[in-house]
Amino acid sequence: MELRHLRYFVILAEELHFGRAAERLHIAQPPLSQQIRQLEGELGFELFHRTKRNVQLTQAGQVFLGEVQQIMRQLQQAIQVGQQTSRGEIGQLVVGFVSSAAYNILPTILRKFRSLVPGVSLELHELTTDQQLEWLREGRMDVGLLRPPVEENRFTWEIIFEESLMVALPEAHLLTNQSDVCLTSLATEPFILFPRILAPGLHDLIISLCQQAGFSPNVAQEAIQMQTIISLVAGDMGVAIVPASLQNLQRTGVVYKTVQESTPKVGMAMIWRKNETSPIVQRFVEIVRQVDRQC
């Protein structure tokens, strides 16, 4: 029994006329009659009462029709789901992000993705850069937003957002009276910084900037998350050099100042496995690229 046999049966059951059914199916009448006989032979019961004047469903044919129509609906649904899945329109996506992404590009990405692909369930995890790399290696995460660079060639990554660095000062600090801050004026200040292992690229950039200004920062306190660093600055525990988007945190007790010296921009990167075949991941990547072009 083939799917076409069931389709022929349904069309004939709707028309109850071999000529009209054959016309709808774009085949000749004799082959249609032959296919229906073949189907009845396989089933072991008659589907139609045939006379010279009309064609009627048997009682068994009526019951069989209801079941076949349900199968056809389920098949159509299966086809639709398969097509949506192949286009990355339904399913689940696990996304990791560093905390600072929540203050720049992440909200825009999420709004865009949810509006264009509402059928995909997003599972979000706030993770440091090193944690995201571990999750990607273990297959626990599909795509991430982290601080570059990434040295492992098993991943594909690209910059999706760039921003300047700023100095975060306690609001009572003397330097808040200045329009901008010279890095050399921070030489004796206690610094709040994250451990290098969490985001080596950004960590090394901050250290390098200080060294170019003639000093090595006195790291008095380490913190894992950017919002924690800002909270410690607000608590007068020290100063910090942070991405400019942290201003969006709007933490009271902190004043942000631009840096007098020319400083390179820091990037946010999107990362995924190089051999990734998931249509959902590819759809996410496409949408993030759209957001990047519009920013």
From TrEMBL:
Q: Which positions fall inside the HTH lysR-type domain?
A: 1-58
Q: What is this protein called?
A: LysR family transcriptional regulator
By sequence similarity, the record places it as follows: Belongs to the LysR transcriptional regulatory family.
Q: Which domain of life is it from?
A: Bacteria
| InterPro entries the UniProt entry points to | LysR_HTH_N, LysR_subst-bd, WH-like_DNA-bd_sf, WH_DNA-bd_sf
Alphabetical list of Pfam families matching this protein: HTH_1 (PF00126), LysR_substrate (PF03466)
* Keywords of the record: DNA-binding, Transcription, Transcription regulation
UniProt source species: Nostoc paludosum FACHB-159
**CDD domains reported in the protein's UniProt record:** PBP2_LTTR_aromatics_like (cd08414)
